[in-house]
Design a protein that fits this description.
CATH class: Mainly Beta
CATH architecture: Sandwich
Number of domains: 1
Largest sheet: 5 strands, antiparallel
Oligomer: single chain
Distance between the termini: 63 Å
Shape: globular
Strand order of the largest sheet: 3-2-5-6-7
Number of helices: 1
CATH topology: Protocatechuate 3,4-Dioxygenase, subunit A
Order of helices and strands: HEEEEEEEE
Structural class: mainly beta
Strand content: 25-35%
């Protein structure tokens, strides 16, 4: 039979978890699809890059601190992620998870891959509103620097 101390501790843990589920400043709110327009261009020439492959995840879940036991509290992202290819104008349409940070990777033949973290709210996208080269892998003598891509993401009109 559990001791009184163990029962009180269990009750406190359950109460804390319930409180976090109803009010949690570190938790992410529910997400909803957010349509966005991605533009990809060559950093040196400014010309659009067609046939660039874009992959993104649908956001990150909040994982509670170790002191709080249980599954992630934030609801799963909607949508979970996706893939698109840019057209001849270097443009692709994305459906991001709103109210979430979305990880975006852009790859094109002959270019270094670019990684960008988008901060999507319910109606706007931050992190790549202006042209950015994102985070690129460092070059080395064995793998010289390839041409660089630039990306820009805006909410769909």
């Amino acid at each position: 039979m559990p001791t009184v101390h163990a029962l009180i501790r269990r009750l406190c843990t359950i109460t804390a978890a319930a409180a976090l589920m109803t009010w949690c400043p570190g938790c992410l709110p529910p997400s909803a699809p957010l349509h966005a327009r991605l533009e990809v261009r060559d950093a040196a020439t400014g010309r659009p890059v067609p046939d660039a492959t874009v992959r993104w995840t649908g956001g990150n879940l909040f994982i509670p601190p170790r002191e709080v036991l249980g599954p992630p509290i934030s609801p799963a992202a909607t949508p979970a992620g996706g893939r698109a290819v840019t057209d001849e104008d270097g443009v692709a349409t994305l459906t991001l998870a709103g109210n979430r940070p979305n990880d975006l990777t852009v790859q094109a033949d002959g270019y270094q891959p670019v990684h960008v973290v988008l901060k999507a709210s319910a109606s706007t996208v931050g992190g790549a509103v202006i042209w950015t080269e994102g985070i690129a892998a460092p070059s080395s003598p064995a793998r010289p620097a390839a041409p660089t891509l630039q990306v820009r993401v805006r909410p769909a009109q």
